[in-house]
Design goal:
The chain has helices at about 15-25, 40-45, 60-75, 90-100, 115-125, 135-150, 160-175, 190-205, 220-225, 250-260, 265-280, 290-295, 320-335, 350-360, 395-405; strands at about 35, 45-50, 80-85, 105-110, 125-130, 150-155, 180-185, 210-215, 260-265, 310-315, 335-345, 365-370, 380-390, 410-415. The chain has 15 helices and 14 strands. It has three domains: about 15-60 and about 160-325, 3-Layer(aba) Sandwich (Rossmann fold); about 60-155, 3-Layer(aba) Sandwich (Rossmann fold); about 335-415, 2-Layer Sandwich (Alpha-Beta Plaits), CATH 3.30.70. By secondary structure, the protein is an alpha/beta fold. The radius of gyration is 25 Å and the shape is globular.
Length: about 425
């Protein structure tokens, strides 16, 4: 375990700065709850608590940093307004913070940004411009606009005031969990992890801080090894909120100094963590916010042997369609949702007899479809595809065996 670095007058972010940032946003930032998880604790073999920052205003921790930056800029620094480039959480947070402080806000978002997020920012009073195909292009355009119009550019993570604001979450954790022993924190650009680590290590240096990245967007391990920010190719990931291609100059150094460890988790574990949180904790958490839980259930990081391990659920802004897809995928993997394909004689009543059999076996019919293309069928045959909900893998096998015993040549596969 790494001890807290010695205090230096040159430290860009320290405990005093974090406390000031927390005070500056206190009347707007919601003190999010800590939720215990018996299911998760029993599964991974330790005492696990969940810091539900997904319940923060605007749905993520980003509001903390946005308010801190506006406070640091002061009325004069924000006179012309604030601006940022973002595809989601940072933009919504800055729009909310600007509205709370009666400040003009401009946001540059990629052309392909989800309409729901564009609308959310607009409803919060921001003037949104769709520029560029990627977040990086939107960021560059926002910086150019800031120079041109005298607006205050608010970086999503590589800024000491923003980092200090995110650190207020760490102050809350220390107060909320007396026996705090370990914290798992998502890492995208590194602002949240840096701020939380500095806050907690400054007060409780014995607490272990572990950053978590997702495999498809993990620039920090190599960057830490080389000592300079190294970009990775962008990739489609379920944890899009932390899919940052390149660490910040400031956050890279802070992560290296203050974190005890950094682990990387696969997509499948993130998806499983999202479903577990939804089903057992009744919490809607985006992929980026679920990576800490993914690290625990996938064995990438073990819980503390003594005391409480906290996983920070950094956000809950997940598209409803994506959440539904993740849930269906989980049902398929657990055997609770299967596709059964079989052949029937193409004569009246044959499908009805099959459906009665399936119903008697206790399987729930979700969908039925005749398949006549792409399969070698006799002229008097038809293929039927049934989407079924079952009680699990054992029940799914029972249904398949009973269908075969009734004379239907069948196969199942996940949907």
């Amino acid at each position: 375990m790494k001890a807290a670095p010695p205090v230096s007058e040159r430290e860009p972010v320290d405990l005093a700065r974090i406390r000031a940032a927390a005070a500056a946003g206190a009347e707007v930032v919601r003190r999010t709850p800590v939720v215990s998880s018996r299911t998760l604790s029993e599964r991974v073999g330790g005492t696990i608590a969940l810091k539900a920052e997904n319940l923060q205003r605007t749905g993520s921790f980003k509001l903390r940093g946005a308010l801190a930056k506006i406070a640091a800029l002061g009325p004069e620094g924000c006179a012309a307004g604030v601006i940022a480039g973002s595809a989601g959480n940072h933009g919504q947070a800055l729009a909310y913070a600007a509205r709370a402080r009666s400040i003009r806000c401009e946001l540059f978002m990629p052309v392909g940004a989800p309409i729901s997020k564009v609308d959310a920012c607009t409803e919060l009073g921001a003037h949104v411009r769709l520029v560029g195909l990627t977040v990086d292009e939107s960021l560059q355009a926002a910086q150019a606009r800031a120079r041109e119009a005298g607006l205050a550019f608010v970086h999503p993570f590589d800024d000491p005031d923003v980092i200090a604001g995110q650190g207020s979450l760490g102050l809350e954790l220390v107060e909320q969990i007396p026996d705090l022993a370990k914290v798992l924190v998502p890492v995208g650009g590194g602002g949240l992890a840096s701020g939380v680590a500095i806050a907690i290590k400054s007060l409780r240096p014995e607490v272990e801080i572990v950053g978590v990245q997702v495999e498809r967007a993990a620039p920090f391990p190599r960057s830490l090894e080389q000592g300079v920010p190294i970009a990775v190719d962008s990739a489609l990931t379920i944890a899009d909120g932390i899919a940052v291609k390149r660490p910040g100059e400031l956050t890279l150094g802070l992560i290296g100094r203050w974190l005890d460890d950094l682990v990387v988790v696969p997509e499948d574990d993130v998806a499983e963590a999202m479903v577990l949180l939804l089903e057992r904790a009744k919490l809607v958490v985006e992929g980026a916010g679920a990576v800490g839980v993914a690290a625990l259930i996938g064995g990438r990081s073990a819980p503390a042997t003594r005391g409480t391990t906290a996983a920070i659920l950094s956000g809950g802004n997940v598209d409803a369609g994506l959440l539904a897809s993740v849930a269906r995928r989980h049902e398929s993997q657990s055997g609770r949702r299967v596709v059964l394909l079989t052949r029937l004689s193409d004569r009246p009543g044959e499908l009805g007899r099959l459906l009665v059999l399936v119903g008697e076996l206790g399987a729930n019919l979700v969908d039925v479809e005749h398949v006549r293309e792409g399969i070698d069928l006799h002229v008097r045959e038809t293929a039927v595809q049934l989407v079924l909900e079952t009680r699990g893998k054992a029940h799914a096998r029972e249904v398949l065996h009973a269908v075969e015993a009734a004379g239907y040549a069948a196969e199942t596969f996940t949907h």
